[in-house]
Amino acid sequence: TRSYSITLLPGDGIGPEVISVAKGVLSLAGSLEGIEFGFQEMPMGGAALDLTGVPLPDETLSAARQSDAVLLGAIGGYKWDNNEKHLKPETGLLQLREGLKVFANLRPATVLPQLVDASTLKKEVAEGVDLMVVRELTGGIYFGKPRGFSSNQNGEEIGFNTEIYATSEIDRIARVAFETARKRHRKLCSVDKANVLEASMLWRRRVTAIALEYPDVELTHMYVDNAAMQLVRNPKQFDTIVTNNIFGDILSDEASMITGSIGMLPSASLGEKGPGLFEPIHGSAPDIAGQDKANPLATVLSAAMLLKYGLGEKNAAERIEAAVLDTLNRGFRTGDIYSDGNTLVGCKQMGEEVLKSV
Amino acid sequence: TRSYSITLLPGDGIGPEVISVAKGVLSLAGSLEGIEFGFQEMPMGGAALDLTGVPLPDETLSAARQSDAVLLGAIGGYKWDNNEKHLKPETGLLQLREGLKVFANLRPATVLPQLVDASTLKKEVAEGVDLMVVRELTGGIYFGKPRGFSSNQNGEEIGFNTEIYATSEIDRIARVAFETARKRHRKLCSVDKANVLEASMLWRRRVTAIALEYPDVELTHMYVDNAAMQLVRNPKQFDTIVTNNIFGDILSDEASMITGSIGMLPSASLGEKGPGLFEPIHGSAPDIAGQDKANPLATVLSAAMLLKYGLGEKNAAERIEAAVLDTLNRGFRTGDIYSDGNTLVGCKQMGEEVLKSV
Ligand SMILES: CC(C)[C@H](C(=O)O)[C@@H](O)C(=O)O
Ligand SMILES: CC(C)[C@H](C(=O)O)[C@@H](O)C(=O)O
Fold first, then answer.
1. CB proximity B150 to A under 8 Å
2. Residue A158: which CATH number?
3. What DSSP assignment string belongs to B240-301?
4. Quick one: average pLDDT of A282-307?
5. Whole-angstrom Cα distance, residue A14 to residue A348?
6. Residues B156 and B212 in one domain
7. Which of A175, A255, A332, B76 could pair with A109 as two cysteines, CB 3.0-4.6 Å apart?
8. Beta carbon of B343 within 6 Å of any ligand 1 atom
């Protein structure tokens, strides 16, 4: 048996419910493939704020660092919305990404044939969409300095941030993106605002340079405003997209909504070495927390990404992916993806159905 | 007779064709309302680069400044795409916005009942969409300093930009947005990334403060990633949106594509005083330039915005808007909005049909 240590960060809202389902699925799929897991649950986000006064306790970060992979539920909620910046759940998430040095965020947006009706896009536009956004996650305007508040010559208050990228930061995310495209349909679209921003001009120049290492991948460039349009006009034109932290935040959310089922979408955040961070792209949904209504499949599929990208356990990953599809084919749906003729289930029962299919 | 001087900036690609149509429509609608126009055509964008070596000649800017309003076609094209930054057509446009101090960019995105099928969104999601994006246009990361290229401690090249807003810049765009919302359905959604960026925290704080002056307008706040999703999920939830320069660039383009007919969408850019700048939101479409295929209606509707917002000539503006609807009702369509059962026309004939309806 191979054995791995997994840090579980249930977090806030529906986080604990979906993590509990994903943990069960991981265990079963693992055991069927000769894999053993040691799970350690740690506080994070609002839960950690209430417990310890900070959104990412040192113990949580060091446990995460020492494990083989980290699975996060969701963070945030109304209760902490007006906290000062360093006491926001979101700040804990940014500290975790920085602390784990997970610079590459992979966000697939796939329209499953079973769920094509969930999209607000016309069927012929939505069906067959299968794209991957590779978002730079530890640089750019999220972390750039100088940042803060000050006053200008007129004595007025100003707020400012710095969008900044160094060559090596662009090169490494570009390589991840080209490698990702290579495993898909060998088409990479780099998104920037190089007609206005110097940081984007360097981005475009470096991505173009790295492309020489990947002659088998077709590289195109697109401005971010156009990309936001093209995702609505014809999302099927995209295979792999690579972009900076803030544009990736916006475009990956837009792409996920195009699928119509954000309760289904996982993500992986990877570094050069060390454990990866895996989480559903949806939020903590405080309005339905604790009501057994959440869709656990995004977290279950995040566990599959953990196996594939984090641990190199491809068979166990595919076992989980197949189980999710089988469960959908058997007609089970949580409320967010429910449509006529299917069976409405809660979070727990959805988990049990997936277990039957594993 | 009232008389006004209008600077026409045809620009590149399809720009000259659509400006020529809009000029004719302006003249006729004006004359029927007792308005006389003096038109002056000036070079701008790639056309100006070829003629004078710069994308915004001094003569063009001063002519624009001295006129009562400026109507722009479109700028840019493959030919100048690899120019250095200060020799890009886009740089001319940014200089024009800065030179005219037009800090408030109004971009309506309306789904006309006649064109609801053009949207890639399902009919029930698209029909009735009628929103206005108020984008800050002369500040933020587009103009913020410091910016440029340099090297970091490791001797690596870096590219950087500054996202920066001062209180007065936020206050004035917020007031325009509240005034705009007041003339619509009194709902304003301010979009920012205040969970991460200090510039956005100040933005949210000031917009909230200005809201006290407009107790009759309902103010909400939304993060930009969520806004990008909500525009796809349920665009009808929005009435008026206010946001910074870069988020406005992205979201207004996304919103325009949701209507499915970007060939129909106008924009207005307004300052504290002095002439406003009016332009279609579509680009220069070099692939169809000179082929009499362009849809001139976005520019015609921009001329209507010029009358309404630039000159306070509401009657003439409404005459043009009504003429455009009447022309659509009579079944005339350019290629970009064509659907079965209608009459396909070119740019010129579309212009002639609008003239008949004025
Ligand atoms: C919660 C927030 C800080 C975060 C981000 O902006 O990165 C989220 O939107 C995401 O995309 O994971
Ligand atoms: C051409 C470009 C500089 C411009 C912008 O980014 O503002 C355009 O995209 C727009 O939205 O008018």
1. no
2. 3.40.718.10
3. EEEE-HHHHHHHHHHHHHHHT-GGG-EEEEE-SSS-EEEEESS---GGGTTTT----HHHHH
4. 97
5. 12
6. yes
7. A255
8. no
CB of A226 closer than 6 A to ligand 2?
no
Q: Which of A56, A85, A91, A93 to mutate to test the pocket of ligand 1 (most atoms within 8 A of CB)?
A: A93
Taking CA atoms, A345 is separated from A296, A338, A348, in Å, by 11, 9, 8
Element (H, E) at A144: none
Nearest CA to A160 among B245, B134, B174, B203?
A: B203
Helix axes B224-233, A245-259, angle to 10 degrees: 20
Q: How far is the CA of B350 from the centre of ligand 2 (A)?
A: 27
Does residue B348 lie in a domain region? yes
Same domain, A139 and A235: yes
Site to probe by mutation for ligand 2, drawn from A191, A193, A196 as the one with most ligand atoms within 8 Å of Cβ, is: A196
Cα separation of A308 and A342, whole Å? 30
**Do B160 and A198 lie within an 8 Å CB cutoff?**
yes
In the block, residue with structure tokens 């001797």: B155
pLDDT, tens digit (0-9, with 9 covering 90-100), for B236-280:
999 999 999 999 999 999 999 999 989 999 999 999 999 999 999
First and final C-alpha spacing in chain A: 19
- d(Cα A73, Cα A284) in Å, to the nearest integer? 8
Q: Which of residues 108-137 of B touch A (CB under 8 A)?
A: 120-122, 125
**Atom 5, ligand 1: residue with shortest CA distance:** A249
Q: Is the peptide bond before A146 cis (omega within 30 degrees of 0)?
A: yes
* Residues B48, B58 contacting (CB under 8 angstroms): no
The beta-strand segments (E) located in chain A are 2-11, 35-41, 69-74, 104-110, 130-136, 148-151, 157-166, 187-192, 218-223, 240-243, 266-270, 276-280, 332-333, 343-344
Q: Check if B93 has its Cβ closer than 6 Å to any atom of ligand 2.
A: yes
The range of the structural domain enclosing residue B296 comes to: 1-106+262-358
Tokens of B354: 């609008």
Average pLDDT over residues A68-76: 98
* Residues B254 and B266 placed together within one structural domain of the fold: no
CB < 8 Å to B262, chain A: 229
Number of domains in chain A: 2
- Active site annotation includes B12: no
Mean residue pLDDT across chain B: 97
Does B80 contact A at CB distance below 8 Å? no
B190 shares a domain with B88:
no
Q: Is residue B221 part of a domain?
A: yes
Whether B227 and B242 have beta carbons less than 8 Å apart is answered as no
Strand partners, A151: A157
**Residue A278 counted as domain residue:** yes
CB contact under 8 A, A163 and B165: no
Binned at pLDDT 50, 70 and 90, residue B82 comes out as confident
Indicate whether A85 and A135 sit together in one domain: no
Give the helix/strand (H/E) hosting B71: strand B69-74
Taking alpha carbons only, the member of B56, B53, B68 closest to residue B95 is B56
Residues β-bridged to residue A332: A343
